Amino acid sequence: MPTPKTYVVEHLDPECGPWSTLEYIAIAQESTASGAQFCLSLAPRGSELPEPLHACEGLQIEYRSVEDVYRDRKHRVCLLDPGAKEELSPKDDGDFDVFVFGGILDRTSELRKKGFAGRKLGPVQMTTDTAVRVTRMVIQEQIPLKDIPYIDHPEIRVDEHESTEMPFRYVKDAQGRPVMPEGMIDLIKKDSEKGFGDLL
Question: CA gyration radius for the chain?
């Protein structure tokens, strides 16, 4: 029986804003539905999580570093790294059980230097939940990156007269819309005038 896949997101900020909260809930729900595990790696230990995350089924919290948790099976860990030479492919399913999404580029670089194998998801920046979703589609559903339907920098209609362009790549659903966490569109509309920095 194959080892269930685990998706690890490193959250390095002491706070967790509404944007990240919705993303993590979506990742937990989708991971659980696919038979995978989702682990949120927190630093520092004093990080405070919003109540919806504490109540989120399928979300595991880990205060130890990725290096410590997977010290004895480092060779089975894949770092999703924009600077990697190879793109993620369905054949990586046989090589890796754990997929790590670094919170910041400096941290990704640090893990790279410590010898974690890396794969990239393409040239366009994705939201965290999209990166995990795409990885799951490649690894668990065996869909090559080039065959996944994407929508880049979609415009979200805020009201009758205004729209906001999202600076990310998303998976495109059957209706041609970007796949986003439940509640994200409302959050974008509600806080569009604040700028995205206040949402993260």
Answer: 17
For residue 169, which phi and psi values (nearest 5 degrees)?
Answer: -95, 140
Q: Residue 106: pLDDT above 80?
A: no
Length of the chain: 200
State the SS3 of 22-77: HHHHHHHHHHHHCCCEEEEEECCCCCCCCHHHHCCCCEEEECCCHHHHCHHHHHHE
Q: Quickly state the pLDDT bin for 154 (edges 50, 70, 90).
A: very high
DSSP string, 78-99: EEE-TT-SSB--GGGGGT-SEE
Q: Are 61 and 49 in contact (CB under 8 A)?
A: yes
Confidence at residue 104, expressed as pLDDT on a 0 to 100 scale: 65
**Quick one: pLDDT at residue 9?**
95
Output the CA torsion sign for 129, 32, 135, 156: negative
